[in-house]
Specification:
Strand content: 5-15%
Number of strands: 5
Number of helices: 7
CATH architecture of the largest domain: 3-Layer(aba) Sandwich
CATH topology of the largest domain: Glutaredoxin
Strand order of the largest sheet: 2-3-1-4-5
Bound molecules: FE2/S2 (inorganic) cluster
Distance between the termini: 26 Å
Order of helices and strands: HHHHEHHEEEEH
């Protein structure tokens, strides 16, 4: 399972900067959590503690909120989120074969992340684009008429881009 070490001081500094425009009003909490999840792709404990303290919300209430909304993740997610639709229309158009291939080729099951932290696989219900199924949403972008071959190509491209990014930063 993917392990992520967070540095509390660093997270606090990042959140101070990122959330400076907020009023610290309780009505903002969902938006704040969405912003945090957009940044980290999940909600680290350090970030929840930060929000609880700054918005004066008990931690139990924080957990109620983040567990109520399915979109929030308390588990580390990868750099890229692959959401495969398993609604009826996508199911009959062979989405389960794509799921099998993703699980087999990358050693992850639904809601798991590759050891290198690059990909998280999630299955979702109908996303309203049945005619173009099977649908795969990659980092929020919907791609239709998906096949195992297309998914393989997309993943190879993302891996290559990541390698180039790492090489550039070295
Ligand atoms: S079933 Fe997949 S978009 Fe509707």
């Amino acid at each position: 399972m993917l392990q992520v070490e967070m540095n509390k001081k660093k997270v606090d500094a990042e959140l101070d900067e990122m959330l400076a425009g907020y009023e610290r009003d309780r009505t903002e909490v969902i938006m704040v959590l969405q912003d945090i999840q957009d940044k980290y792709n999940w909600l680290p404990q350090e970030a929840l503690t930060y929000v609880a303290k700054n918005w004066q919300i008990p931690m139990t209430d924080m957990y109620h909120i983040v567990t109520f909304y399915k979109a929030f993740s308390l588990k580390p997610r990868g750099k890229h989120i692959l959401q495969l639709c398993l609604g009826t229309a996508c199911h009959v158009r062979e989405a389960p074969f794509i799921l099998d291939a993703l699980e087999r080729d990358h050693g992850i099951k639904n809601r798991e992340t590759t050891d290198d932290g690059l990909f998280t696989l999630e299955t979702v219900n109908c996303v309203g684009a049945c005619a173009q199924g099977p649908i795969l949403i990659i980092d929020g972008q919907m791609r239709g008429n998906m096949t195992q071959t297309k998914v393989g190509g997309i993943i190879r491209k993302l891996r290559k881009a990541h390698k180039e990014e790492v090489a550039e930063n070295e």
